[in-house]
Amino acid sequence: MSHKTADEERSGKEKPLGSQSLFRGLQLIEILGNFPNGCPLAHLAELADMNKSTVHRLLQGLHASGYVTPAPSPGSYRLTTKLISIGQKALTSLNIIHVAAPHLEQLNLKTGETVNFSTREDDHVLLIYKLEPTTGMMRTRAYIGQHMPLYCSAMGKIFMAYEQSQFTDHYWQTHQDEIQVLTRNTLTELSKMQEELADIRQFKRAMDREENELGVSCIAAPVFDLHQQVKYSVSVSLPTAKLKQVGTKALTEAVQDIAQRISKEIGFVTPQ
């Protein structure tokens, strides 16, 4: 007769035989990813819904393997750079990076601003490549490997715009806990978002008008693949004040041009 552990009783889920520690360890890694300065053991146990003794044992194993290290704050832990190395190896296996990188570097040099390249992972934007600005001092908070919501980013709205018609309604219903007012410009009303997405499909570009962070604007364009699906998105982020100087039209054309070049390289043919 088998018996569930206390952690299993709380989660209500059985794990595959022999993989309990693996799943729990990965869960701790995912949680620690949200705490770059470290997370106290007690809080980590609470978030993971595990006993503190279980969490401590798993952390010791992750520490011995080089994935976790004690943080400066006593009793706290954080991830190590070993995960960055693994992530970079995974990213380099994506041929799209090798195809897109030269074009993104051109855009970076032409605009002098932050250039982002992303794909979609489930209901989030996954940033897979980023180039820092060559002029100016502004650095965005985005980083390679970051997951971002669809509704409040220019690249996210690109992915939403080219989804099936019923997707946005479903997204709005199932992500109410995530859709929040981040700035006075954040779109949180479904009707306004529908209007925005129609505009994106018409002009093949999306904008983040300080919807995620005040003072920062972003322009994105879709990258189409062989099957005319939007699998990737290119964007440029810059201070709103500078965007007003440069002009939205000029920057949009530069982003769209690079997006089209990448699209052609991965097999997209403009429909006749």
Automatic annotation (TrEMBL):
GO biological process, one term: negative regulation of DNA-templated transcription
Keyword DNA-binding assigned: yes
Entry protein name: Transcriptional regulator
Molecular function terms, GO-annotated: DNA binding; DNA-binding transcription factor activity
Domain HTH iclR-type: 19-81
Pfam entry (one): HTH_IclR
Gene3D superfamilies: 3.30.450.40, Winged helix-like DNA-binding domain superfamily/Winged helix DNA-binding domain (1.10.10.10)
